[in-house]
Every structure is written in C-alpha cells, then in structure tokens.
C-alpha cells in the first residue's frame, strides 16, 4: 500500500510520501536508543512537564489537526476535534499519575522471605515499536505514547499508510514539547518492513492495534525474538437489551454506538442482541433512527456519517452484507453504496441472520448493524459469546440480578452496563480471545512496558 493521503470523501490522492529507507530507519532507531539513555534518568517531574506541554500543543492546534484527520480518514470534523482533546487529556492523565503508578511497592512482611527489606520497582524497557491503525489516528498513537514516555521508554510509530500527515505531526509533537531528540518518531514504512524493525536488538517490545492477521504476524515475529507484545485486534461487540431496560436510552445510544467514527471502531457495538419481549419495538425505533442519519461530507457540521476510510474497507463491508443477504438475511434499511464520489456506504441494519453468514463471526468495520432476537437471557449470553472476539460489550438492564449475571457471563475485556463502550485514560483497555492480550491505559497500561524488578535486602 502506498504511503499517501487519499481523501476518502472524493477518492483523490492529496499527497504522496516516499517510504523511509533502511538507512533512515536505522538512524531513527539509533536516535530512539540514545533518547532512551537520556530519558530513563530524567525525573517523573520533568517527563510530566513535557507531557503537559505536548497536551497544550494538541489543544492549541486542534482545529488544523482535525481537518488533516478528516481529509486522511474521513471521520466527521467534530469527532476529529473531540479525539484530539481526548488525547490531550490522556497526556495530562499520565503526567498526573505516572509517578504513583510506578512507585516502589514494599513487601509488608519482609521477614517472611528472610529480608530486612524487600520491594518491587518498575523500570522502563527501552525502545518500543507501536504499529497503529488509521481509525483514531491521534488517540490510538497517544494512548501508547503517553504511558510509554511517562515511564521512561521511547517510541517508534509505524502508523497506517493512509494517515502519513498525522504520523508526521505526531513525529514532531514531543520534540516541540521538550522531550529529548528521538524520544518519539514516526517511521514511514510499509507493513512488509515491520519485521525488520522488530528484529533490531535495540527494539525491546511491540504494541499493535489492528487486524487479527496483522496481530498474528507481529506476535510471531516478536515471539521468535523473545520480545514483549501487547495486541488489540478488534472486536464484534454485543449490545444486549433486556426487557427491564430504558428502551429510549438504549435505542439512542445504540445508534451512536454503531455509527460513531463512521462505524469504524474496534469497540463499536456491532451485534444488537435483543430479548424477544422488546425486540420488535427496539428494531422499529433503531431502524428508523439509523435510516434518518445524514450521510455526507465529513467537513459539513450537518453530517452524521462520512465515508469509509479506504476503498478496500468499503469493498470488504459490502461483501459481508451481500453474503448475509444471499444467505437469507433481511435488510431493514440501507444495504449498499450511494451513487456518489468517495467511499460511502449507507448505514444499514440487517435482521434474521443465518448462522452461516460471515458477518455472524467476522467484524463488520463500517456502519452496518446486525440484529438478533434472543429468546431469553441465556440465549442472549449464548449469542454474545458465539464469536471468537472478546473486546468489550454493553448490557442494558435495570434488574440487579441480570446485571451481575451478564457481568459474569460475558467473555470480554469490559462490560458496560446501561452505557456505550468508551475508552477512558482511567480504565484499563483490552480484550480476550481473538481480540488480543495485554492492556492499555490506566495503571495496567503504563506497567506493560516496564521491568518489574524484585529487590531483596538481608
């Protein structure tokens, strides 16, 4: 895939970039290693100052950066601006909390291990490679960068090839904020060059957010070299509605949960599993609300849903819908691409899905919702857990027993009760099963790329 900005609203190529040569990648990796030697000895106070300065730059430059994001990957402008401010919040969160998260932890009873003192200490690993996707091109990168830099690591960013201008903006952000030269750099390389970077002994760990095949490849390459990995590989999140739920709130949230970011979010609700007692009413309201969404230019404030980010992404989504329809699914609204330039796909609701439809097991990355009728709570849990994914989930109920039942029953990295799944700096983020392993954000995220060193003193 060429490293280029191709505007998904028009399908036209705005800018192209030459990939970094092997020599340039080597130079940048050397800079990252040198920066690590400097950064690991700086205080948390200094790192926090630099993180806050980076956050200030993000906020000050949000309008221009948001337009770049829209032109590169097509999300509505207001959502792009919100992403940037959320990223600034994430930087400030780690500026405020990194020192506490990584503080030495003394053993309460050192005599039990024959010591006068015993404790554990978190220390940075070194250069970490981040392989990041295009769908949240600032937030995805900075939810890695903020904890990694706060801990004293340095980062190399291999961003998606369709968001090179965003990658280059991030390349300069931390240097302008005061971090040592080389602390965080972008590598303009294709996916075929990633294994070579992983092979470099100066690179100590890898984190990837992306597809399951990409995760398998990175995990295999890193595992062969005994390097730590954190993987977030997408999801097909269930949105479960039970008879006791506030149906008005559930419907309103369901529309946003499926179509935010033009439906291109790993934690977007994708499968709507509704108890039979409220299924017909939910389906009627939900379908009507989806059909009413305004599809158009993402720079227009009136637009609810913009284009998909890539032509291949739209083709993949259309294939899933066409396959479901061929196998008996009913299209309640949408079901195809509008006749216009760009990579748009009409928001779609499918029902009566056969078990052999690909969309039952595969992630639909775009504004397509799959409706399921559940006979009872047990059936709802069964349908929710029938995919290989386990990223997040949403359950709508006002029955405390049902709430506890589904919190226990769902195979997922998170359960949101009466709310839409959202990533917060304060909460650990990650999945189980084929959605990956490891955690980002909160205390768990900053500790992933540290050495937990045990110290024993006689």
Please render the helix and strand layout as text.
Layout: E1 4-7, E2 12-16, H1 22-39, H2 44-60, H3 62-73, H4 77-101, E3 105-106, E4 117-124, E5 127-131, H5 139-151, E6 154-158, H6 164-177, E7 184-186, H7 194-199, E8 203-209, H8 212-224, E9 228-232, E10 237-241, H9 247-259, E11 269-275, H10 276-291, H11 311-326, E12 330-333, E13 348-351, E14 368-374, H12 377-384, E15 389-390, E16 394-396, H13 400-409, E17 416-417, E18 432-433, E19 436-437, H14 442-447, E20 450-457
Parallel strand pairs: 5-6, 5-8, 6-7, 8-9, 10-11, 10-16, 11-14, 13-14, 16-17
Antiparallel strand pairs: 1-2, 3-4, 4-20, 9-19, 12-13, 15-18
Helix pairs in contact: 2-4, 2-5, 2-6, 3-4, 3-6, 4-5, 9-10
Structural class: alpha/beta
**Tally of structural domains:** 2
Large-scale geometry: globular
> Uncertain regions: pLDDT < 50 for 5+ in a row?
none
CATH topology name of the largest domain, in short, is Aldehyde Dehydrogenase, Chain A, domain 1
CATH architecture designation of the largest domain: 3-Layer(aba) Sandwich
Task: Report mean pLDDT, rounded to a whole number.
Answer: 98
Largest sheet: 7 strands, mixed
Q: Can you give the helix content as a percent range?
A: 40-55%
Domain Aldehyde dehydrogenase: 3-455
Family: Belongs to the aldehyde dehydrogenase family.
GO molecular function: aldehyde dehydrogenase [NAD(P)+] activity; succinate-semialdehyde dehydrogenase (NAD+) activity
Keywords: NADP, Oxidoreductase
């Amino acid at each position: 895939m060429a490293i280029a900005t191709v505007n998904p609203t028009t399908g036209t190529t705005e800018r192209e970039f030459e990939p970094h040569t092997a020599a340039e990648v080597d130079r940048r990796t050397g800079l990252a290693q040198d920066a690590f030697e400097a950064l690991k000895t700086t205080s948390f106070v200094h790192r926090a100052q630099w993180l806050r300065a980076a956050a200030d730059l993000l906020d000050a430059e949000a309008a221009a950066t948001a337009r770049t994001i829209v032109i590169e990957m097509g999300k509505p402008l207001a959502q792009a601006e919100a992403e940037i401010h959320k990223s600034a919040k994430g930087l400030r969160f780690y500026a405020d909390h990194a020192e506490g998260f990584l503080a030495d932890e003394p053993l309460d009873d050192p005599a039990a291990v024959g010591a006068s003192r015993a404790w554990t200490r978190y220390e940075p690993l070194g250069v970490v490679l981040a392989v990041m996707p295009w769908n949240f091109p600032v937030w995805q990168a900075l939810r890695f960068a903020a904890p990694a830099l706060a801990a004293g690591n340095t980062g190399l960013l291999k961003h998606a090839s369709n968001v090179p201008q965003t990658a280059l903006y991030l390349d300069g952000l931390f240097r302008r904020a005061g971090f040592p030269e080389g602390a965080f750099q972008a590598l303009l390389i294709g996916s075929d060059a990633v294994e070579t970077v992983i092979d470099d002994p100066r690179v100590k760990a890898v984190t990837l957010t992306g597809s399951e095949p990409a995760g398998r490849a990175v995990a295999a390459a890193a595992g062969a070299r005994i390097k730590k990995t954190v993987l977030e590989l997408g999801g097909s999140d269930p949105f479960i509605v039970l008879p006791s739920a506030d149906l008005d709130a559930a419907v309103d949230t369901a529309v946003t949960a499926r179509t935010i970011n033009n439906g291109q979010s790993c934690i977007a609700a994708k499968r709507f599993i509704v108890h039979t007692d409220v299924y017909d009413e939910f389906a009627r309201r939900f379908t009507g609300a989806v059909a009413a969404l305004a599809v158009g230019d993402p720079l227009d404030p009136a637009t609810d849903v913009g284009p998909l980010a890539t032509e291949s992404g739209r083709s993949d989504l259309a294939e899933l819908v066409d396959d479901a329809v061929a196998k008996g699914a009913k299209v309640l609204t949408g079901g195809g691409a509008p006749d216009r330039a760009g990579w748009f796909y009409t928001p779609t609701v499918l029902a009566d899905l056969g078990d052999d439809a690909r969309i039952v097991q595969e992630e639909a990355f775009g504004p397509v919702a799959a409706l399921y009728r559940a006979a009872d709570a047990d059936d709802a849990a069964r349908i929710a857990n029938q995919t290989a994914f386990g990223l997040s989930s949403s359950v709508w109920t006002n029955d405390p027993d049902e709430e506890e039942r589904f919190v226990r029953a769902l195979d997922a990295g998170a359960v949101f009760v009466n709310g839409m799944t959202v990533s917060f700096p304060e909460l650990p983020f990650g999945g189980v099963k084929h959605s990956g392993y490891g955690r980002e954000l909160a205390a768990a995220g900053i500790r992933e790329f540290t050495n937990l060193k045990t110290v024993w003193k006689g």
